[in-house]
Amino acid sequence: MGCCLRRLQLLCTCVAFSLGASVGTWKGTIGNWSMFIWCFCFVVTLITLIVELCELEDHFPFSWDNFLITCNCYSALLCLSASIIYPTTYIQFLPDSRYRDRTITSTAFSCLAFVAYAMEVAWTRAQPNMITGYMATVPGLLKGLETIVACVIFVFIRNPYVYLHQPALVWCVAAYSICFLLSSVALLLNLGKCDNRLPVPFPIFQVVLTLLSVLLYATALVLWPLYQFNQKFGGQPQRSSDVSCSDRLTSLVCTWNQRLAVTSLTAINLLIYVTDPVFSVHLDFVSG
């Protein structure tokens, strides 16, 4: 079952990447992100398949099963993000042509890749006596989702002119970066089995980091739209006032749309951060 799903993952990510490359998807920021996801997932899946076919799992200094389910969870979340962001910011601007058909097909294979990775995670968790890793738990998935949403935010704010003109917006970028680092630290400590070396219990440490991230994201959710869309603070309330939005370049997302996307992603990630401690407390303190 695992090998069949892995071959399906290889096929879907390879087709999605190839079709994206054939229409010049890499020319835009979102295209770059999607192409990176498909290429990354393909390479990681290929490596894991080769390792398992050569029976080299025991040669690694870490738990192969934990590593595998972590890769599958991240690959599923990454393909899901590409399947949502790619069509909403890229395909809709393409005229009816063979290029549009290819990008739609690429998105469809990206969705299939997500399903294949999700099925492998579910199949692994359903195995009897299988000790699943942290990423297979709800808090682990939420932590991974937090980092992925943050990465998408970084893609949209790649150009400094989006935020450098206002100190409040620079603070928002700092908040995104700090929260990304905090989530990454929590993930790495748990995946590296270093959580028992902390001076405080890891569940308490994790909840504290998450609550701090909630506060930071709450400030960003207030400041980012206020300084980007409120005219009193130098923002642009109307999309039509942005010159870059009038030139409908299919491979680029105009500045106003980038600002709106960051606002939406900030709200989404704040919701994920608020949900995170609820499941963490239930898993570690109630169920445990």
Automatic annotation (TrEMBL):
<feature type="transmembrane region" description="Helical">
    <location>
        <begin position="66"/>
        <end position="86"/>
    </location>
</feature>
<feature type="transmembrane region" description="Helical">
    <location>
        <begin position="34"/>
        <end position="54"/>
    </location>
</feature>
<feature type="transmembrane region" description="Helical">
    <location>
        <begin position="168"/>
        <end position="192"/>
    </location>
</feature>
<keyword id="KW-0472">Membrane</keyword>
<feature type="transmembrane region" description="Helical">
    <location>
        <begin position="204"/>
        <end position="227"/>
    </location>
</feature>
<comment type="similarity">
    <text>Belongs to the MAL family.</text>
</comment>
<keyword id="KW-1133">Transmembrane helix</keyword>
<keyword id="KW-0677">Repeat</keyword>
<dbReference type="InterPro" id="IPR008253">
    <property type="entry name" value="Marvel"/>
</dbReference>
<feature type="domain" description="MARVEL">
    <location>
        <begin position="1"/>
        <end position="129"/>
    </location>
</feature>
<protein>
    <submittedName>
        <fullName>Myeloid-associated differentiation marker-like</fullName>
    </submittedName>
</protein>
<dbReference type="InterPro" id="IPR047123">
    <property type="entry name" value="MYADM-like"/>
</dbReference>
<feature type="signal peptide">
    <location>
        <begin position="1"/>
        <end position="20"/>
    </location>
</feature>
<keyword id="KW-0732">Signal</keyword>
<feature type="transmembrane region" description="Helical">
    <location>
        <begin position="135"/>
        <end position="156"/>
    </location>
</feature>
<dbReference type="Pfam" id="PF01284">
    <property type="entry name" value="MARVEL"/>
</dbReference>
<keyword id="KW-0812">Transmembrane</keyword>
<feature type="domain" description="MARVEL">
    <location>
        <begin position="134"/>
        <end position="285"/>
    </location>
</feature>
<feature type="transmembrane region" description="Helical">
    <location>
        <begin position="106"/>
        <end position="123"/>
    </location>
</feature>
